[in-house]
Automatic annotation (TrEMBL):
It comes from the Eukaryota. Belongs to the UDP-glycosyltransferase family. Residues 1-38 are annotated as: Disordered. It comes from Triticum aestivum. This is Uncharacterized protein. Gene3D superfamilies: Glycogen Phosphorylase B.
Amino acid sequence: MEAATRVRPSSCCRSRGAGPHEPDAGAGPPPGAHGLRPTFVSTRHVLSSTPPPGAPFRVAAISDGFDAGGFASCPDPAEYFSRLEAVGPETLRELLLSEEATSVRILMYDSHLPWAGRVARPAGVPAAAFFSQSCAVNDVYGEVWAGRWRCR
């Protein structure tokens, strides 16, 4: 197996300063350590209003349907997520099929966007979900979904 395709275990702990839109620098070896060239994909608004993540990450944008103002520009969260699910998959598909994405080997996507995996597979790109929250939060979600913990 080539060094670039090996998967090394990583911690589920997040490093200090790794926010919801920052690649997690504390979850294992640096992405460039095995010659990988990762691309960080986020919404157009996020990429236009925050500094880029820096080396070794390239950046690419998809649309959430609210390119000018992002989540804050939509008064209704349900409307935002509905529009994101309607617009996001199409722009991700376009990105995966674009000339600059011809070398995509895998799509790692936040588990809060399950449609990303459904978009990657028909494009011939293997996909893997990751959890952007701590393991404890994911355990609580699991308990709620299993019906062992009720929310009021």
